[in-house]
């Protein structure tokens, strides 16, 4: 299990296991990781873990978030990365896995598609994305994803949550449910998803009925029910 080592001025303050899918960081008491310092925003950042991968996102904080000295909005965390929030530092330590084991795990990992919360896509922050529910999306038609290949061919998932993750370790995308419709975005990996046979770019792509999506070698169909 991955963990964060919180320190200040070289003094280790706490070791935090990333046990939850989403770990919020901020000054307010409701955060999973509370840092009671005025340089830290009330809701400063979040770490989202999908499968064996973790992503850091700045939640529009006042003073920003650095990783290895560089300002970031969203960052795929790698073993040894150092997150800086004001005078505080958090070192990300991934679970130790040999390169051979990691490669084998990626090849054998099942394709997953599941509802999650807390990942931003195309400039929508985690907190903003999570709030797009209720009245704002009440008029959206129901949509489903149907797998066309792979071991779970024929399986369907109704897209009722704000975000649904798709893929395997090393190639992950999300479908965001917004007031304007359903949007596909690339999250992680060097290979981008295919939409109707063409790779998407880093921006979100609005999905239309019967669009064909391919992620991590698995083909699926987006079905919009009117």
Automatic annotation (TrEMBL):
Residues 23-72 form the FHA domain. Gene3D superfamilies: 2.60.200.20. SUPFAM superfamilies: SMAD/FHA domain. InterPro entries: Cell_Proc_Reg/RNA_Proc, FHA_dom, SMAD_FHA_dom_sf. It holds the Pfam family FHA. PROSITE patterns: FHA_DOMAIN. PANTHER family: NUCLEAR INHIBITOR OF PROTEIN PHOSPHATASE-1. This is FHA domain-containing protein FhaA. It comes from Candidatus Accumulibacter adjunctus. The lineage of its organism: Bacteria, Pseudomonadati, Pseudomonadota, Betaproteobacteria, Candidatus Accumulibacter. The gene is fhaA.
């Amino acid at each position: 299990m991955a963990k964060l080592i919180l320190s200040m001025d070289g003094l280790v303050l706490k070791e935090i296991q990333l046990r939850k899918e989403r770990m919020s960081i901020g000054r307010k008491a409701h955060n999973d990781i509370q840092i009671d310092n005025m340089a830290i925003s009330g809701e400063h950042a979040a770490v989202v873990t999908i499968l064996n991968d973790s992503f850091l996102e700045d939640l529009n904080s006042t003073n920003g978030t650095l990783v290895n000295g560089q300002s970031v909005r969203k960052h795929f965390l790698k073993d040894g990365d150092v997150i800086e929030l004001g005078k505080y530092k958090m070192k990300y330590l991934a679970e130790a896995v040999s390169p051979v084991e990691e490669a084998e795990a990626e090849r054998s990992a099942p394709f997953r598609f599941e509802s999650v919360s807390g990942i931003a896509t195309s400039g929508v922050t985690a907190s903003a994305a999570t709030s797009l529910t209720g009245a704002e999306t009440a008029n959206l038609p129901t949509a489903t994803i149907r797998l066309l290949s792979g071991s779970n061919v024929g399986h369907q998932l109704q897209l009722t949550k704000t975000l649904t993750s798709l893929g395997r370790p090393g190639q992950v995308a999300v479908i965001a449910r917004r007031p304007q419709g359903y949007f596909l975005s690339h999250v992680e990996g060097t290979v981008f998803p295919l939409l109707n046979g063409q790779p998407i770019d880093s921006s979100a792509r609005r999905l239309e009925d019967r669009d064909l999506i391919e992620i991590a070698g698995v083909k699926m169909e987006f079905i919009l029910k009117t």
